[in-house]
User: What shape does this take?
Amino acid sequence: MATTSNKPAAAKTPSQGFVYLPLIAGWLIPGAGHFLLGKWIRGTLIAVSIIAMFAIGLAMQGKLYTSTQDILDILCVAGDLGNGILYFLGRAAGWGGVPVQTTVADYGSKFIVVAGLLNVIAAVDAHNLRTGRKS
Amino acid sequence: MLHPSHFTAVLLFALCASTVFGITMRDTPKRMFRYGAYCFALFVGSVIVFSWVMFLIAR
Assistant: This one.
């Protein structure tokens, strides 16, 4: 009797390990948090969506925000930082360094910011999956 | 360099954002797909509606 009632509780117990690993991995590499949890299809769709959005933003000559002098620029830097390793790679390679001169380039900058914000949402989702808050 | 039209940019944006919204906001694959499609329709639909509103205001 006692063993049968303990089984569901044992099944719900999260596996051992660093609980924030999917969150950090998901932030650094889009979709990696879901990959770590064995959610291959979800991870692939997230990775494709976010990397495509980042790449489209760069292809539209959007810029990677670096300035922290204006409050709006600070918010955009925070959004860009959500891209994790893509942002640092872009900064190191000098991508998106040109000042925005066209409407399409401004859209591109927003694509990059939103890709970062979506990546943060995806990383938090991976954390929720890891803690058992979401199935 | 990519020069999409404004509407193409909206479609690309809506597709990527809806995919992530669907996956992260719902639990089962069927509900994810339905919520993603719902978000996509809202993104594109609201753009079309507001475009017409701005067109009528500007006349």
User: Anything to note?
Assistant: The mean pLDDT of chain B is 95. DSSP finds two helices and no strands in chain B. Helices of chain B lie at 6-25, 29-58.
